[in-house]
Automatic annotation (TrEMBL), chains A, B, C:
This is Uronate isomerase. It holds the Pfam family UxaC. The keyword Iron does not apply. Its EC number is 5.3.1.12. The lineage of its organism: Bacteria, Bacillati, Actinomycetota, Thermoleophilia, Solirubrobacterales.
């Protein structure tokens, strides 16, 4: 280790994140090298498709890298930097304010130490933008200017970066009533050769307890042309929107609720609660019962129309009411809760768990279920895949824990492959590269322990990077 | 690492599973070497005692290594190979079908990568049967023929393998109404010098909600000669059967229920519920209450008759109803659930936790309780031992997590020693060898960190392999 | 590894607890060396302040190192050594009995293998007392004599050890009605230059279900001079006692209850339950409701008077009733239970989570909440810090798991720094040294993976040892 002098430089070590033990590192380096340049498959994320349709230059460094990224804003908020002073929920920022936001992030660069946010930002700054100075209060302005200059260049427009990032498929996340015009526009654009596909995300439409739910039903009726005054119309309208998504290239439907119970209701009971919810007279328990029943229905629809079903449950969204009221959702105040899958999903799995072609991918923020529930479930049901570590768990140690927790019960073939789940477009290569390095490290450990032969290790790596997401998400 | 060429060979590396760091590996190799050849003590498993009594040649490779082993069938099922095409629940297989089952397993050899199933099968094939080719679609038939030839040789009969495996004690798992004739037969056989002991496993008799429970009570009465029309008769009959087991060498009683609550009932309440259950009028809650009370009673009996009490709770058996209905239990569709010990066992431990000679061994599939509950409990109660990782957790990383999670709170002396819990006879040496390698690795890490002296490390290893199971299971 | 000969010596290796891989160990050694001699900051512990006020020689080895330390007595109890034969709850021991207790501990030295108790005791014996022989039945008497001789020397009196241990601040834990005379005495002593501060610990006063609660209320009224016949008087009396503590140097208030729910009561409801509890007519649910409301009130008071609020929940105290009845609390029979923070603390955090200057430190014995709840919470709320691993988790592997579980979500800045939480005065340097070694190992791993630059690693180490506790506990 070099002397502990204060450093101002920033660089990426070629062996970063690989195991420290030299013998294992050598194996990992070889495994990583073989997949390093493979195309990026991103079957679940939150990039706005208009970004690629319009292909306008990114605005400024703060709006690109700080303000909209709740991974970044939450840690700054915890360190005493108010969300208002980070430009959150304030629309486009004037140059002076954008620069101030950027300065605040740079001045707090140390709070990211040890986190993947630091890793991703460093990767983006160095690898994409060629930055060589570490962010700090002292370097903030110069970096701001440097990045601003880069962003004005044609090579840093979204489509150019899409190509440079070697993205093969990019899935967005979309409201069921979205007309998907941006996706249609991209598909119709002869100058565009990428693949951007929508994802059906009906959460709010399945939560009758939500304050705007009757309005959503009205909107759904309008968009689908199907009367949603009763339960059967509601179901038909949802099915119609799924067809609309499939026609625009969607291969999956994503669901995030507090729990994943799937207790069925009789149609008459479902209809009664549906009408009560529309009239604003459903109890909280009734609304929950209808939501759980609808999750079961979504599996039924997936069996019929082929959309892969993905579940991302177990988060208390907007945990701090005053923040949610002032700044809206997705600003860093979402906190995980305990989750249970074994009993909750049993009705769904009894009915559809062995249905040919049905794919169900389970994600969790509660790591306790990896070895206890998800791996045993995916180790039996042919429809079921263990989703990659997500959100707070998309981080080196968490990813290592995930592999250690599940591989012994399900091997590699029943896992989803990596998803980046990001709204930060420029972090996509960093995130996929991190995943490849970590998987290489894990597989190298198996080789070093003589649990896997070298040829098998290479096959596993290629399968994790390309085979799994392509098969699991039906790409 | 060798080039990533496809390999067709298969061999066992002498250092497999030992830590990768060369210094730690050297320590581990020495520690492992000192216990490698020690006899196998297997105080809990599911081998059929008739196997050793009859000493008939094993049938065919599929029936030996695939069909009856739910560790194997569940992963194949998850990969789309139906249980019907694996010969599950179909009785003896004709040669053509057996060969087809074997081919299916070999063709899916890659789905076992990274799992202990792969490790065990590899060990069995290479070490016991001398196989040198990796299973695959291409090698399946030749391997089938090779194994079939081996199985016909006298050296591969059960008793010969029992000796070759260096088994000192083998405990089976038996129904309370079993006459234990196979055990008696072995004991009376002058040509047999091994030790096969029964284990009292009364689960179904303690679950009044089970559909066949009244029939079980009738059977219990018949076998014990004690009228089971009321609660006291039921208890007396159970006690009588325990005495029968003890007379045939049993040293432990095993219990597996959904939870481990031990809330006592007043005798009158227990009798009332017992009669209601016999009449088919007990509610689900009443049946559960009686089961929990009976678990407490089993501890009382263990204090009196000396049988070690082992608990294996927290599994949702037959999670997929259609599979259970068609193929029966133990085919790979059992899924763990969350479990709680601290409060659940309190009534039992308040009464019997400090009873001299009482041994209670707690197993879990919910790893969260290792550091939170099991280690603190076993670090206070002199009756209590933390059971080795079991079932899904009988795997290298899980075993490492177990040692890391509990050793700091209970050391080594309050642990059970390894149990293989297997019905796959030929996997016994592989499983015990795996455990010894992993313990050697863990103890070597303590030595490498200067937390344990070399002489102590050697004592710990011998104690884990021989001392713990012998003392804990009263062998 | 040296040959496995039985050893009788005992020494401390300079690299103990550092990572085994030579490259990482070299980095860790350098990082550890830079903080090794920094003063000890102990913001939470259980040392009796009279120890330092009186500065009397410690009695005998058993009373110093065995009898009062539940970490030691619980493991001996689990190994069949009754608490009575360890002198627990028997007051001062005559010399013969003290020697017998010491002999019992030495004879069971092997049961501590792999535990931090072994590590701490070894450190204390070697580093403080110069012992070179390993405790055993054979060495017990000689060690007893050797230690007794040391303890009679002036250099082994409490104040001399306080200086030798380089303690900068030592917080005690005190009853709200304590007059804090010992603290005042130390502060007024011109020959004393250390810093010993009280901690406000009102648990029993906030549990209206406790059998002695009405007596506590009477005592509170007497000591505070405020009538506690109604709820507002109770609150005012608590506030007055907090002021008394602050006047004597306290910077924090500590709370340990079964859960951390903070559901508010209307003042009228709080008053009604308070009066019912005083009259002995409150139900268990009402008492719990008042306790939960009072925990919210304690946060309100902390916002107003600045005392740091620390929570140590989730333990079933006195799990074994007969032991509790005979030997009292804190003898090793406390067992953790599952805990939940996300929903439980939401009312508190909605009100006070962003209050300027409010510090809330969350400790847990349920490791599952580290990555799922505590890190995400502390990664958003500027008031909140993740407490260091505590009690059963104050151990090498648990500390490593803690850093791995939380760093990726909260970095280093939102953590509490180490607390020793000990009543064993002589274990303080061992515990802090252990923490420094482990943090050095963890930070070295980040450097070895190129996730942190060398200068940053040095800053992190200094911050963890000095910066964090000083800032978080407002020292």
């Amino acid at each position: 280790m070099a002397a502990l002098l204060h450093s101002t430089g920033m660089a990426l070590h070629p062996d970063r994140l690989l195991p420290a033990e030299p013998g294992v590192r050598a194996i990992a380096r070889e495994l990583y090298g073989a997949v390093r340049e493979l195309p990026v498959i991103s079957p679940h994320g939150h990039v706005d498709p208009r970004l690629l349709l319009d292909d306008q230059p990114f605005g400024d460094p703060a709006t690109l890298l700080v303000t909209p990224d709740h991974y970044v804003t939450r840690l700054l908020h915890a360190s005493g930097v108010g969300l208002d002073s980070l430009g959150v929920a304030q629309g486009p920022l004037p140059e002076g304010e954008s620069r101030a936001v950027w300065r605040r992030m740079c001045a707090h660069w140390d709070v990211f130490r040890g986190t993947p946010v630091r890793y991703w930002l460093e990767h983006e700054l160095v690898e994409i933008f060629g930055v060589t100075r570490r962010p700090s209060a002292a370097s903030a302005d110069a970096l701001y200017d440097e990045l601003t200059a880069r962003l004005a260049e044609p090579a840093f427009r979204p489509r150019a970066l899409y190509d440079r990032f070697r993205i093969a498929v990019l899935a967005t996340t979309d409201d069921p009533c979205d007309d998907l015009a941006a996706h249609a526009g991209l598909a119709a654009d002869p100058s565009w050769s990428g693949r951007v596909i929508p994802t059906f995300r009906p959460d709010r439409y399945l939560e009758p307890a939500g304050p705007d739910w009757p309005d959503l039903m009205a909107r759904l009726a309008q968009v689908s042309g199907i009367d949603t005054a009763d339960y059967s119309g509601f179901v038909a309208a949802i099915e119609a929107r799924r067809r609309h998504f499939i026609a625009h290239g969607a291969t999956s439907a994503d669901h995030s609720h507090e729990d994943v119970r799937t207790d069925p209701l009789e149609p008459a009971a479902a209809d009664r609660i549906f009408r009560a919810a529309l009239a604003g007279t459903a109890t909280r328990n009734e609304a929950t019962a209808l939501r759980r029943h609808m999750l079961l229905e979504m599996a039924r629809m997936s069996c019929e129309d082929g959309l892969v079903m993905t579940l991302h449950p177990g988060v208390r969204r907007g945990h701090h009411g005053p923040t949610a009221a002032r700044f809206g959702p997705d600003v860093g105040a979402d906190i995980p809760i305990r989750i249970e899958f074994t009993d909750a999903l049993r009705p769904l799995l009894e009915r559809y768990g062995t249905h040919p072609g049905f794919h169900l991918v389970l994600f969790t923020l509660d790591e306790t279920v990896f070895s206890r529930e998800l791996a045993p479930l995916a180790g039996f049901y042919p429809s079921l895949y263990v989703g990659a570590p997500w959100w707070f768990l998309d981080a080196p140690e968490a990813i290592r824990r995930y592999r250690r927790a599940i591989t012994e019960t399900v091997g590699f073939s029943r896992t989803s492959g990596f998803i980046d789940d990001t709204r930060a477009f420029c972090s996509i290569p960093a995130r996929h590269d991190m995943s490849r390095r970590l998987d290489a490290g894990w597989v190298a450990e198996l080789v070093a322990q003589h649990l896997l032969d070298a040829d098998e290790a290479g096959e596993v790596m290629a399968d994790l990077v390309s085979g799994r997401p392509t098969e699991v998400f039906k790409l």
